[in-house]
Amino acid sequence: MSRGERAAETGLVDVRLDGIKPLRDRIAEMVRESIIDGKIRPGERLVEPELARRLGVSRTPLREALLQLDSEGFVNVTPRRGAVVSELSREDAMETYLVKGALESLAARLACERITDDELAALREIHDRMVRLAAARTRDHRRILQLNTAFHSTISSASRNDKLIQYIRILRSQALRYNYIYLSVLSHLSSSLREHARILDAIGRREGETAERLVRAHGDAARAALCAFIEHHKAAGA
Predict the structure, then answer these.
(1) Are residues 107 and 79 in the same domain?
(2) Which of 93, 162, 196, 237 is the most exposed place for a label (fewest CB within 10 A)?
């Protein structure tokens, strides 16, 4: 069996096929996507020698990638156990969405003052593409997740506040697993798009207070649904 066939069989991607990004980043992206998609389960131990062999990479960039994923909250790296995929946590979801919601709502208010016409046009195009994908017979949830990130990142970038943009980027990375569950598993894409439309309208009208309120409510809705989902799964597994 070829190296590419082994990767396909295990649900992993041969990271050496993409020579653009640094190897560490490509490994991190592969493992991150496998966790988000559920191919690698919460609590699963990532054995370095086995993972390095499956990917056809050395252990040094693999360790660097796992440390990056640890900083993002996807795995927990400890000296003796190595890397273990983080469990879904109600407390983590609650804390992440509380802080993310506060920062993103501030960014939306600032964006109303500073967004350019080109950025507003880009935001509308992202929203329209999400709407088209949502209407498709077979939904590409990974692409929808990417566009969802682009929608919110465009708003935060328009705030023109570098510190705010940096912190939001970190929190959104840590919330990717939760976002995937919210949009696909819990099927809240339609309601999320309706909320996006209202946020887009408020930003287009430069109504800072309204945009701030709508973005905060958008995050609160996701947080409540995710916490209920995690609690239900913990109770079902008890």
Answers:
(1) no
(2) 237
* pLDDT tens-digit readout, 141-193: 889 999 999 999 999 999 999 999 999 999 998 898 899 899 988 899 999 99
Among 35, 54, 85, residue at a domain's last position: 85
Based on the fold, state whether residues 46 and 106 are members of the same structural domain. no
Looking at 85, 113, 138, the residue that finishes a domain is: 85
Q: Catalogue the long-range contacts made by 141-147 (C-beta closer than 8 Å, 24 or more residues apart).
A: 141/180, 141/183, 141/184, 142/33, 142/37, 144/183, 144/184, 144/189, 145/36, 145/176, 145/179, 145/180, 145/183, 145/184
User: Is the pLDDT confidence value at 2 over 50?
Assistant: no
Domain span at residue 57 reads 3-85
Determine contact, residues 24/68, Cβ cutoff 8 Å.
Answer: yes
Domain count, the chain: 2
Q: What is the spatial distance between Cα 180 and Cα 182, in angstroms, rounded to a whole number?
A: 5
- Please tell me whether residues 104 and 188 are part of one structural domain: yes
Contacts of residue 204, defined as CB under 8 A and 6 or more positions apart, other chains included, come to 120, 124
Task: Outline where the chain has alpha helix (H).
Answer: 3-10, 23-37, 48-55, 59-72, 90-114, 117-135, 141-157, 162-174, 176-180, 189-204, 208-237
